[in-house]
Design goal:
Elements (H helix, E strand, L loop, with lengths): L3 H11 L6 H4 L3 H21 L2 H24 L5 H14 L2 H4 L7 H18 L17 H14 L7 H21 L2 H21 L4 H25 L9 H18 L3
Helix pairs in contact: 1-4, 3-4, 8-10, 9-10, 11-12
């Protein structure tokens, strides 16, 4: 059975005196970017239910994590044992309804328990967070961070009453964006467009689905339709740039119909 020792051995070889020049110069600040990229590739494989690809991408993500860990081990800051011990204790501590005698009767109670335990941990470790938003990493992708920020303030009781109010707010933001476009104020238009996106993130939250999933699915649908249109144009030796607006619309509608017939949904 393969173990992490196999990966550690490879990484140490790569970072040795006679190893790879690129691997030797890497530091955690550069490797996390590789980790983020591999994580997105894993997400794509999972979305496609491509099991062979999922296995491969899990390996890539694991390799990046072990690589970062090895750098800290080289610096004698902490070891794999330290990491495992810390996360194991944390997970056991945060699940008292499994490992102790705590009782939870709903998912909301479960989340409340989790937040209370996290707050206690921060207090014990001397981590002062003047704002509930201090727990939201600034390096998150904007769409995901918007959702995280929204969920934080909702826990404090700051939210719309229902989804209809959120949709109404989104409509108002669109009107404000249109007004900004009319004035020609570029900076204001950017801000108003951001307000639209932020409000739509909350529409997704209240509707109980992840905005990233929705956007990913929608983008994949567009890609699928466009590729079908490209294929048809190529078969007919046509170039999209040479078509009139009405011709483009005709080919696009055919691609949409063809895509819907092929879609498993």
């Amino acid at each position: 059975m393969e173990t992490l020792d196999t990966l550690f051995a490879i990484i140490r070889k790569l970072r040795s005196e006679n190893g790879c020049a690129w691997d030797k110069k890497q530091i955690p600040e550069t490797m996390w970017k590789c980790l983020a990229e591999e994580t997105y590739e894993l997400e794509e494989a999972i979305a496609k239910q491509d099991f062979g690809h999922i296995c491969e991408e899990l390996g890539d993500v694991l390799f990046q994590l072990v690589f970062i860990l090895e750098i800290f081990q080289e610096r004698q800051i902490f070891t794999l044992s330290d990491v495992i011990e810390q996360v194991a204790k944390k997970m056991i501590r945060r699940h008292p309804h499994v490992y102790a005698d705590a009782k939870v009767s709903s998912e909301q109670e479960l989340f409340s328990q989790w937040d209370a335990i996290k707050a206690m941990e921060n207090k014990e470790n001397g981590r002062k967070r003047p704002s509930v938003l201090d727990s939201v990493p600034k390096g998150m992708p904007s769409l995901i961070r918007a959702l995280k920020v929204s969920k934080c303030v909702v826990k404090e009781g700051f939210d719309w009453d229902n989804i209809h109010e959120v949709i109404s707010a989104a409509r108002e933001e669109i009107k404000e964006f249109e007004a900004a476009l009319k004035t020609g104020n570029h900076d204001e238009a950017i801000m108003e467009f951001g307000d639209i996106l932020f409000t739509l993130v909350n529409v997704a939250r209240v509707a109980n689905f992840h905005p990233e999933t929705a956007l990913s699915n929608s983008t994949a649908k567009f890609e699928g339709r466009f590729r079908l249109m490209e294929k048809e144009l190529k078969e007919n030796k046509l170039r999209l740039k040479d078509l009139s607006k009405s011709q483009k619309e005709l080919h696009w509608c055919r691609a949409k119909e063809s895509y819907e017939r092929q879609s498993p949904l």
